[in-house]
Specification:
Elements: H1 3-31, H2 36-41, H3 43-66
Helix pairs in contact: 1-3
Length: about 80
């Protein structure tokens, strides 16, 4: 698997972890036992999720700058 493949797969797993952390935060708030650490728990996967998301977002522009084909598969004129 390529580097971009690993980053994409990591991004998917981090999004799952972030979703679970947000659901845990909502559940504790609804139960009335809200705690600061549960709120901070959502930030743990959010920071690397943001970094991998920015990398994936920038890939089409970086590919065009390097002179390779865009992610859509179109040849560069």
């Amino acid at each position: 698997m390529t580097r971009n493949g690993w980053i994409r797969q990591t991004h998917r797993w981090l999004s799952l972890a972030f979703t679970l952390a947000v659901l845990a935060n909502i559940a504790t708030n609804l139960a009335g036992t809200a705690s600061v650490w549960v709120g901070v728990l959502a930030l743990v996967p959010l920071i690397p999720l943001m970094l991998t998301g920015l990398w994936l977002f920038a890939q089409p522009w970086l590919a065009r700058r390097d002179g390779t084909a865009a992610a859509t598969g179109e040849a560069r004129p």
